[in-house]
């Protein structure tokens, strides 16, 4: 018997078995068609829903000021308008003047690490800072700062050192808090207040003496009477020139914004701001109160805010008011109100964290906002 046919038959069976196993495998899955169109992005979230019902405005100019990044940013002050320039200052800026019309830098003066907001001094400015270079004084004295009286074109008219006797001015020297300058009443005398401490000095010799700290006030005049209006324990108090209380309103008040001068038969009004809340939202209410002490008044449209950052008022009562909308530090707003309290516009600052002090000023044709340590923004002021 031949084995070749048997081997051939076994090979045929093996091939048949292999073919049968392949036929039993499941077919490969059919690819599922996919779309090449991406899903539409979600609609952007409006970071300013509170401003939806208020008129907006766009800046007419923005300027980034040159700073010295080698120095710490310990102070940021201004703007203050004198003539055709706005002056800002700080430890990284010095005192810097910018022309309102062109935005060009006009002049710069050096400062120490702490500068104070300039004080209008007639047609000039009084500048006070820590002294760019420390002067030498006798051992029984200590230096508080340096001062300069500067014209709008940057000419230094007068300069000196604020210096006082140790022991008398030590409390002021160690004080912290909001620092500001006010004319003290007597010709050529300035009160420099820092937190709860103050000194006075004369610009003819710079000699400083301890003084009582007093609240910031604004003066209203009606016929032959006048009142100094300010906050005392967060309530509005009007005092006669002799210091006696003329009237007060016992409602918590956040800020005194200024005095709207009398017009015709109308008495002057003092404009104040109060902070309240509704359904977890902070609101700033602006109220105009008769400065003579009557109960007449009117309220403006409420603005969003949990705190007041800065304010400025023009001679006709036009008011710029900066508020912080919430605790995120990234939502700050500037609003412009006219003499009657109507909101002319609101401008939200760029939506990012803002940690530096903010300042505002109202000039003839523009509103200036100094923010983020080196940014100056021009906003148009509506025609009057």
List the helices and strands and how they pair.
Blueprint: H1 4-24, E1 61-64, E2 76-82, E3 85-90, E4 94-99, E5 105-109, E6 119-121, E7 124-129, E8 141-150, E9 156-165, H2 170-173, E10 179-183, E11 189-194, E12 197-202, E13 208-211, E14 217-222, E15 225-232, E16 235-239, E17 245-249, E18 255-260, E19 269-278, E20 281-290, E21 297-299, E22 303-304, E23 307-313, E24 319-324, E25 332-337, E26 343-348, E27 359-362, E28 366-371, E29 375-380
Antiparallel strand pairs: 1-29, 2-3, 3-4, 4-5, 6-7, 7-8, 8-9, 10-11, 11-12, 12-13, 14-15, 15-16, 16-17, 18-19, 19-20, 20-21, 20-22, 23-24, 24-25, 25-26, 27-28, 28-29
What do these coordinates show?
This protein is mainly beta. The chain has 2 helices and 29 strands. Strands 18, 19, 20, 21 and 22 form a 5-stranded antiparallel sheet that branches. Strand 27 and strand 28 form a beta hairpin. The longest helix is centred in the first third of the chain and has 21 residues. The protein is globular, with a radius of gyration of 34 Å.
């Amino acid at each position: 018997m031949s084995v070749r046919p048997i081997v051939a038959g076994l090979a045929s069976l093996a091939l048949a078995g292999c073919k049968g196993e392949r036929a039993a495998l499941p077919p490969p899955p059919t690819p599922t068609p996919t779309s090449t169109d991406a899903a539409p992005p979600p609609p952007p979230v409006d970071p300013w829903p509170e401003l939806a019902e208020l008129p907006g405005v766009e800046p007419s100019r923005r300027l980034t000021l040159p700073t010295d990044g080698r120095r710490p940013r310990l102070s940021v002050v201004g703007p203050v308008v004198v003539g055709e320039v706005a002056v800002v200052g700080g430890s990284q800026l010095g005192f810097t003047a910018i022309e309102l019309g062109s935005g060009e830098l006009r002049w710069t003066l050096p400062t120490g690490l702490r500068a104070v907001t300039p004080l209008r001094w007639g047609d000039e400015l009084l500048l006070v800072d820590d002294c760019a270079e420390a002067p030498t004084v006798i051992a029984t004295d200590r230096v508080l700062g340096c001062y300069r009286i500067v014209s709008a074109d940057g000419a230094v008219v007068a300069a000196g050192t604020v210096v006082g006797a140790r022991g008398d001015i030590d409390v002021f020297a160690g004080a912290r808090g909001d620092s500001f300058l006010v004319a003290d009443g007597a010709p050529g005398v300035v009160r420099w207040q820092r937190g709860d401490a103050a000194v006075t000095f004369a610009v003819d010799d710079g000699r400083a003496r301890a003084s009582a700290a007093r609240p910031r006030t604004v003066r209203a005049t009606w016929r032959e009477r006048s009142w100094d209006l300010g906050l005392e324990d967060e309530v509005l108090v009007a005092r006669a020139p002799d210091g006696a209380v003329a009237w007060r309103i016992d409602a918590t008040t956040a800020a005194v914004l200024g005095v709207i001068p009398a017009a015709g038969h109308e008495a002057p009004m003092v404009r104040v701001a109060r902070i309240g809340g509704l359904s977890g939202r902070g609101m700033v209410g602006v109220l105009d109160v008769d400065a003579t002490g009557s109960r007449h008044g009117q309220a403006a449209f409420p603005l969003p805010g949990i705190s007041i950052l800065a304010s400025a008022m023009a001679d006709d009562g036009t008011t710029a008011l900066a508020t912080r909308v919430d605790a995120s530090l990234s939502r700050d707003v500037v609003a412009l109100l006219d003499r009657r309290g109507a909101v002319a516009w609101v401008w939200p600052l760029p939506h990012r964290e803002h940690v530096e002090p903010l300042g505002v000023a109202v000039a003839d044709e523009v509103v200036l906002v100094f923010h983020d340590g080196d940014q100056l923004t021009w906003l148009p002021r509506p025609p009057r």
